[in-house]
Amino acid sequence: MIGVLLVDDEALTLDLHRHYVERLEGFQVVGECAGARSALSALLDGPRAPEIDLVLLDMTMPDGSGLDVLRHLRARARTVDVIAITSVRDADVVRQAVGLGAMHYLVKPFTFAMFQERMTQYARYRERASETTGAATQAEIDAMLGALRPVTAPVPKGLAPETLERVTAALRSAGVLSAREAAASLGLSRVAARRYLEHLADGGRAERAQRYGTPGRPETEYRWRD
Fold first, then answer.
1. Helix (H/G/I), strand (E/B), else coil: 6
2. Confidence of residue 153 (pLDDT cuts 50, 70, 90)
3. Rg (CA), the chain
4. Is 33 in a helix, a strand, or coil?
5. Per the confidence metrics, is the pTM higher than 0.85?
6. How many Cβ atoms from other residues are within 10 Å of residue 71's Cβ?
7. Which one-letter DSSP state was computed for residue 212?
8. Are 52 and 42 in contact (CB under 8 A)?
């Protein structure tokens, strides 16, 4: 199991993230902190520090920033993995977080599907890293780093990345959708919804099937591929 420490100054956010983690296989929450100081105490001196593999770290807290926490961790040679979870969109903060070792930077608010995707990528990275020992080959290094990146086909002209993300999240959450259902759920036209779903199918992230059992022509449904 991957031990997760939640760090956020908002109680409702901590509760939400705890429920998100509990829905994932292979992860368990081993601690919760409402501020930067308590996070550092838990990570550096806390009794459960050895169990913490991953920190879901807020960037803005009353007693210090997530960047402060990262700097102190690295200064003490604490190599725990970190995913930044924040509403801060400032590019300089993103660069600093990545420079200090954040593996992902997830902007609030986000759907469970987006959260699940990032956590799945992280779990895949840990699995690849655990399988590699000694002097790694270039292919093994590429596989480890590639596990942290989503595999998507380039967004073709005429499709908006933001809408593609919404359709992706809806399909992943539902598991199976038709263009009609996606259109109704997201406020798109059926033609537009079909274009985005077809793009996901062409990129290997969804598979097509025919849905029978309703009057008229069979309907194409799209199933998310984990």
1. strand
2. low
3. 20
4. strand
5. no
6. 14
7. -
8. yes
